[in-house]
Amino acid sequence: LYTYGISEQELRGQLKSLIDRQDPLISIYPSGKHAMVKVTAIENSQSLAESASIAMAKAARIQLGDAVFSTSNNNLGAATEQVLEKQKLNCAVAEVGSDGTFASRLSHHVHAYAADDLAGCCEKLQVDSAIAESYGDSQQAAVWLACAAKAAAGATVGAAILLPPSSQDSGHVHISLSDGEQAWSKSFALNP
What we know:
Helix content is about 40%, strand content about 30%. The protein has eight helices and nine strands. It has helices at about 10-15, 15-20, 45-65, 75-85, 100-105, 120-125, 130-135, 140-155; strands at about 1-5, 25-30, 35-40, 70, 90-95, 110-115, 155-160, 170-180, 185-190. It has a five-stranded mixed beta sheet with strand order 6-5-7-8-9. A four-stranded antiparallel beta sheet has the order 2-3-1-4. It is elongated. The model has no long low-confidence stretch (mean pLDDT about 85).
């Protein structure tokens, strides 16, 4: 299982009852905000080992819920791509200051509007930048951009990533997602 946004300590806490069983064995390999949770069973036959491993992996996935982004060796971008395709969704992404990095990882089903600054992104979206600029460097600006990207592309989902200007050594990254009825956003502080 591949997870995102959950620490090794939190993984161990949520999987404690399964880890304590020791058969099949659960191993956790953290890497930044990602982690791989590996299940290994030793049985008399390969088919018994596979069955035991699959059952334990299913139990672990239930315990971890939305922290699991993939059950195969996909990166987060590929896993997102699979969800979009499976759900028959298309996505529009507005990116400010990230050189279109996020959208480039989601090459299919994505309309991208990337620029170095907010005004440039609004120009590509063909919307008035005064509204977005009135929100400043904020989650509200990211939400507004996600909704504007969704509307501009006629997409089912809009996303936005708003980074501080490259002239700043610190600030916040604002990320938002909107389906047109609801919007979700999160901000992360950048360390100098």
